[in-house]
Amino acid sequence: MVITYGRCFAESQERKIKLEPNHVFKKFKSINNKVAHNYIIELRNNHIAHHSDKNAENNKMFFVIPPLICPDKKPVILTTSGKIKVDAISDLTIYEIKETIKFVLEHVTEQINRFLEKLRTSQF
Fold this sequence. Notes:
The protein is mainly α.
């Protein structure tokens, strides 16, 4: 999820299009979702996709959410290498990350539908 999300905003010679955060989030009023977006991108760029350790490519990440019966425990991200240290994540952040991904998906779907409609109505 982190790599796929981040790839949408990354430049690539294979892909001629990318999402621009300023354009995507211009109508999104919540600053928390922009923070969640930056968090996902930072996690991807610094710990997953572009990590300087070549062994990181084989690294697996796990997002651990404690059960409701353990309200004093906070969600954490664990890795099989043990080299990535990520602070505990609040329940609010989990919600914001999910909402941010949902918003970006809706934005992209809306853009695709708008372009498809233009193609349908245009004359060649």
